Structures
1.
Amino acid sequence: MADAAAEMDEPGEVTTLRRAARRIETPCGAGRLVWHEWGEGPPLLLLHGGSGSWRHWLRIIPRWSDRRRVLVPDLPGLGESGMPPEPGSIEAVAGVVAAGLGALIGPEESCDLVGFSFGATVAAHTALLLGRGARSVTLVGAGGLVPARRPMVLEKVRGKAGEALVEAHRTNLALIMIADPARIDALALAIQDWNSRHARLDTRRYAAEGALPRALRLLRCRVDAVWGADDQLAYWGLPERQAALWALCPGARIRILPDAGHWVAYEAPERLDAVLREFLEPYGGAPESQRKG
């Protein structure tokens, strides 16, 4: 069941969208993978970032649910979903997602995958498992393509409450998620708080071990990418990230959104939506130039 206590405190925007969804569960290790699904049509899989949940896509889901079947799981060890099976590798995480997706869509259907941050890595590995079932992969704010130049140190939230907790979340959102402090509103703070309280899987290790490049060099579907120009996690090496992606996927289209940070789906949803429409429509096959092997 959903977290009833959390639902009592959630913002109205979250409640409205959650209640409009179909909630589905598939196996996840010893527990369950929780999915939320909206709309009908060709499947579109949205995968959220580290220490996140489906709420990372709150402002994108309504823009696509009128013409696509939008499937958004809470990834293993995050949100309402159970922990991934041991050893908790990226392959294990992606295997849970791929198996769950396979149970939800027909064997003849192909799916577009869009992954944000850690979700970009999961999307690439899931697409590998899907094979021809993956029509395209779009990386949003992807990390792990090049080593970070210095570690990101966040404000600790454990043990804090009230205004101190709110300010800690505000600091962390400014450090890693949203470039313009004026856009860190009550909704963003509430989502950040819910996500952080339900996060049990440490996703940072997957970037350090090179999980994303490992998958990208094997993918045969179309791969594209988008970053915010002020992405707090990518600005240390945004040109290097683009070069690394083009070396792995020479046909990749890359779009940089000005005046936007890491969480572009929240800070610049209209502009991200326009890029996704460019990448994903019309619904057709991947060009031969992007097929490897």
2.
Amino acid sequence: MAWEEVLAQNGYRVTAPRRAILLVLQGATQPLTPEEILAQARQLHPSLGLVTVYRTLDVLNALELVRCAHRDRACHGFLPATQGHHHVIICQKCHRAVEFPGDEDLEGLFRRIEEQTGYRVCDHLLQLAGLCPACQKEEAIEPYPLEEKI
């Protein structure tokens, strides 16, 4: 289902500012901060404000149309979300992000944690970091140091 349909079905208007934000997020390959979303969306809707970006992100997050991801220096970045339960893995070098499915394998871990701590696990946030295939290839090809000319 399209984002616009989900917004409309939940009583939200699809305004020009929201459409600009949606277009930016739909093209995101790495988590974007609200400020980065604003900068890109202003190219589509010049009068867009940061408050509108934050409010729209709150709505999209509540409707599970985006997911929040942790970034090295900026704690909140946002990515388009797919339906169902997914997690994110982010490349530590190029910051490209990819979703991977579910929590079915985590149930055993949750039980052990509950037994060890006495807590009841109600929710979780799992995000992994690593190197994407392209960055792994780059690291494998280390250039030779330049020789000093005498």
3.
Amino acid sequence: MRQHGQLLNMQIMRAIAAALVVFGHAGQEMSLMATRTGQSSPNLEFFNWAWGVDIFFVISGFIMMHTSGEHFGKPGASREFLRRRLIRIVPLYWLTTTAFVLTALIAPKILNVPPSGLWHAIASYGFIPEANANGAVRPLLALGWTLNYEMFFYVLFALGMLLPLRKGLLALCALFIALLGLGALGPWHNTQVDFWTSHLLAEFLLGVGIGLMARRGFTMNGVEALFVGALGVAGAVVMGPLWGMETEIPELARAGVPAAFLVAAAVLGPDVSRNKVTVWLAFVGDASFALYLIHPFAIRPLREVWMRVADGYLPMPLYLLAAVAGAIGVAALVHLYVERPLARTFNGLGKGAARPAKAESAGALSPA
């Protein structure tokens, strides 16, 4: 199975997924500013920018299969998988969650949703789905809802790793199908059960399937990859808000399946050439977890400054571009000087712990 070029493709795909989420959230802030100031702003609701999260979930399933497929059934492999996943996700997420709490104490006006009490805070740090003050099942740092799914994915995948590959994947599929069936029979009016039986589980399973295809040596030529990728993008556009079809088609069909098509085209198609643009995009992809978590801390303060300094003087789309660029810049700094040092520190705490492969560092959103 090819490695370097395939992972370059995947990192670029992660950059695109993160950019979609950031662009969508910056667009929401732009609309909020327009409402407050009476200015006009472009309508960005023609596309589901949260599609980036669906792409991230499919990528997550693929990366776990890509990096850990050969370790199924090996003693200690399941424990090591969870250790590396926790090191990848927990430090930066807890740090940004704590930053949210401090923001709530120091500058609460910046926040769209205030904290919701002690239990909600405990659940947020523990990756337990819980409703916030507005009734939405979101942690303190609302973006962390995707990580609640990721942690659940990791636990299920680690259980599958206790068995040899074939039996482990069959058991994993059976477990996911059972959970999806349980969810289809709901709602169960229990926050955790309803959350952990969502159709989003299937997106992770689609990624695992793509990873298995890659392990078996399945590839696409350039024309095939272009067609499959274009089909995925077209599906997300046509079945999205543009013509109001998002209310008529199940979310898995209109978001998850197109995301799987796009990811499959990226990882099974030809390797992109290495140049300044693709290397830069790959770096953004490597920093995508930081970008996903910290971008609200960049775009919301910029919103407040923009309304005070540039109100009426600069066009709203300029804020959109500044917010996305600023978020990427801050994320790059956080990735280089916070996220990477944290990972090195926690990896060094385990005596004799192996340094995680760079391929595995691409595995999380997670987007999520």
4.
Amino acid sequence: MLKKFFALLFVFLFITSECFAAIFSYDFSSVISKHDLDASSTVSIYVEDMKTSKQLYSKNENKLLNTASALKLFTFAAALDTLGKDYKFETAFYYKESNLYLKLGADPLLTSDDINELVSKLKKNVDFKNVKYVYIDDKIISMTPYPDGWCIDDFWPSIAPISPYIVDNNKVKVRLILSQDKDVVNIVQDDKYRFSFINQLEIADNSDIDILKNYSAMQNIITLRGKISDDTNLILPVSDTKYFFISRLEEAFGKYQIRYNDKFYFKEVPQGAKKVASVHHTIEQVSEPILKYSDNFSAEVLFRVAGKKYADKKGIKPYGNLSTGTTKNAILMFNDYYKNAGLDMRYIKIVDGSGVSRYNAANTKWLVQAINYLDKNLDIKEYMEGADEGTLKRRLRYLKGDIWAKTGTHNGLSSLVGIMKTRKGNEVSFGIIIQCFSKPSKALKAFEDDIVDCIFNL
């Protein structure tokens, strides 16, 4: 009787262990099937052992798909190599022969406080009684507001025009205040920079506000439509970045009682001019909004700054009096960098530095091979986000300290690329792209996390 009991117990444990093995098998095909993505989507996955270069898993790894913001990792790396780890985005005043020259540094982190600090230093070092004119050197990057392939709903109202004139993210706050009787919506603009509004808002129980701008007419007019239920703050990108920057500069002059009654002129800093005041942010500081919080504006600015340095080094001349800090030159830099790294450039095509454009395309195998190169040559993990950080907040917490990644999201599209230590302690690189137009973003991120589980258990 006892033998029969143990025999039955063995069979039960065997069957139970088989069931649990099936449930927790971490099988890629099972995960893809569970999420029902194959029928409606293109799923591309590539995983490689970083030490042996052995392919560990692949699916549709050669298909060219849109990378979304995962591209930022690779454009940032090319820019980092070109500019160097010690590069500073410096905004500085120079002095020569009774004239001041403000050299813009296209610093995406520059704030009004920074400008106040700059002007405070300037006042200590220069007697304005001897200053005749103030010039601005804005040749660091081009004034082209948005790269190719960007649609209006990509940049408005979230991304300010790309420009060498940058302060406070080139955005201002506008307050929508309901009257005491809640029958009127008042638009309050506290900033010196002003918009013209067409107010078509209706007061309702729930808020659903549409912010619209007519780009067929070059006007600073915004239409507000939809419903509003309570007081609301809107953060809006400015249209005239030059005017916005100069107004902040004039405010700083006034704060420190600097009298300059003439207008600002525009000219490059001459040879022999002496630097008299400066403020800066490092490339490491700029990397945080780009790689951890996926800021498109900062990514595009950095890309053009690196494009200028590349163009100047290669002897590429500007058109007329324009800057060489263009997206076109930055793309030349990008292609040269990865071509020299030995990567096959047939499997990637880019038109911007942030991944916003629908025209960008790459395959996951190329992305993984590029990550391997960046890990060996740039220590790229130092700049990447980890589990429960940035755009990975509240995701993959069990991999804290063991994953370095970059996310990407468009409507109907999600991507994740990075480096990870597996359960066995092996370091692997991976690329995941899901091009899907029928699933919400949360469902695609859940799928990515399940695939990461599979990779972790390889």
